[in-house]
């Protein structure tokens, strides 16, 4: 089956369930030769040939110097914090998937939530300084929906206060700005290759780092701390990506440009069709020179005749499973809400966004007919 056939877009039917995303899967027949290689070599994990190949291929594709594969994005985040020996307090965003802050708790670090800015819903640099204390050691921003943070402003603050910056770049595969890959910004960036992401290895993730020495430390940390058969240099974890996942990543890379191009078309169609729907605002891009269209967030404003949650329900009644990413805010979950920085008054922009944003379905095989059907339901609500 050709690339085009694998992206075949079927026409719409009201009985068809449409989810916020659907993984892009190349034809199964294309994966068989990869599996045969694994069966022949009997190398299933622990840095096998596909693991080595995928690390190299991703560095080249993404335009980054060093990359270490992981079993998922969450373990990559947990390990990134350990690699830089982050302790004390870390400034982060409440407007993200819960794994962002959980990675801090897993390291015994106190999250300090800072509000987001209204255009990108990314950490607001203007509010970071007021949250810095003598215990602050790092900033953990998120390139939310793949829209880059204000990386220059964040770096300036980090340099002034001698803080590390680790980007949760789970949504930002392939995103570039004027100076190249946004994944090169900060001290480390962490990707997720989960099934729901633009580039998926079923489960998977990676840390991107600037130099070979840091990569070596990360590689030790994801392999129990082993340097050789008898030497353990750190209390590492098992974070290694298996050969099946890495092989699948190699195959996915062949199809990624095609998948991104189809996402771009869907993004453009939504923007065009939603332009004149009163009360609906599409989140603008954040100045990226290459976007990945990983999510399609809309804001349901007061002029819209229904609430965000009513629209969410109407879409569900029509078999369309849009998602309220990111509601509730991380700071509202029980393990965080007692923190002083979790107070609503501290996070007004994030709190409002959590009540207004709806992420519409976007994935390569979503048909234009279905995009039109989704917009019709929104316009008629
Ligand atoms: N940081 C950020 C900013 C993140 O967004 C994430 C993950 C992480 C860190 C952690 O990275 P990982 O450790 O996950 O690599 C999903 C994902 O599970 C999660 O990876 C993702 N962020 C988050 C934003 O979304 P759910 O609970 O919404 O997933 P779920 O199972 O409801 O899937 C959504 C829809 O996707 C389903 O309704 C149908 C479709 N789907 C899903 C799966 C898993 C499929 O068609 N096939 C599938 O296999 O969290």
Automatic annotation (TrEMBL):
Q: Identify a single GO molecular function assigned to this protein.
A: dTDP-4-amino-4,6-dideoxy-D-glucose transaminase activity
Q: What domain of life?
A: Bacteria
| Class of enzymatic activity (EC top level) | transferase
Q: Which UniProt keywords apply?
A: Aminotransferase, Pyridoxal phosphate, Transferase
Which CDD domains does its entry note? AHBA_syn
Q: What is its EC number?
A: 2.6.1.33
Q: Could you tell me which InterPro entries the record lists for this protein?
A: DegT/StrS_aminotransferase, PyrdxlP-dep_Trfase, PyrdxlP-dep_Trfase_major
Give the record's family classification: Belongs to the DegT/DnrJ/EryC1 family.
Q: Could you tell me what this protein is called?
A: dTDP-4-amino-4,6-dideoxy-D-glucose transaminase
Lineage of the native species? Answer: Bacteria, Pseudomonadati, Pseudomonadota, Betaproteobacteria, Burkholderiales
């Amino acid at each position: 089956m050709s690339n085009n056939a694998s992206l075949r877009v079927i026409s719409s039917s009201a009985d068809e369930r449409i989810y916020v995303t659907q993984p892009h899967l190349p034809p199964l027949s294309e994966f068989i030769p990869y599996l045969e290689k694994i069966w022949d070599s009997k190398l299933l994990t622990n840095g096998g040939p596909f693991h080595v190949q995928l690390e190299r291929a991703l560095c080249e594709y993404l335009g980054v110097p060093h990359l270490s594969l992981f079993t998922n994005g969450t373990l990559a985040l947990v390990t990134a914090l350990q690699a830089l020996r982050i302790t004390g307090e870390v400034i982060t965003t409440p407007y993200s998937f819960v794994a962002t802050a959980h990675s801090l708790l897993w390291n015994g670090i106190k999250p300090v939530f800072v509000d987001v800015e209204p255009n990108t819903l990314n950490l607001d640099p203007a509010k970071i300084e007021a949250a810095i204390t003598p215990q602050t050691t790092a900033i953990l921003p998120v390139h939310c929906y793949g829209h880059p943070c204000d990386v220059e402003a964040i770096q300036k603050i980090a340099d002034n206060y001698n803080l590390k910056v680790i980007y949760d770049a789970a949504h930002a595969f392939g995103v570039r700005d004027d100076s190249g890959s946004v994944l090169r910004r900060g001290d480390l960036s962490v990707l997720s290759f989960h099934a729901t992401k633009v580039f998926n290895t079923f489960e998977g993730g990676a840390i991107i780092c600037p130099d070979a020495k840091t990569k070596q430390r990360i590689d030790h940390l994801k392999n129990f701390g082993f340097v050789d058969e008898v030497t353990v240099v750190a209390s590492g974890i098992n974070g290694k990506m298996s050969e099946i996942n890495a092989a699948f990543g190699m195959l996915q890379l062949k199809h990624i440009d095609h998948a991104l191009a189809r996402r771009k078309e869907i993004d453009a169609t939504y923007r065009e069709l939603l332009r004149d729907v009163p009360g609906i605002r599409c989140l603008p891009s954040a100045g990226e020179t290459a976007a990945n269209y990983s999510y399609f967030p809309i804001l349901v404003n007061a002029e819209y005749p229904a609430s965000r949650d009513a629209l969410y329900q109407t879409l569900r009644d029509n078999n369309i499973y849009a998602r309220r990413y990111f509601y509730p805010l991380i700071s509202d979950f029980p393990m965080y809400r007692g923190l002083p920085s979790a107070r609503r008054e501290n996070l007004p922009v994030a709190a409002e966004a959590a009540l207004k944003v709806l992420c519409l379905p976007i994935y390569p095989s979503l048909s234009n007919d279905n995009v039109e059907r989704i917009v019709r339901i929104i316009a008629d609500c």
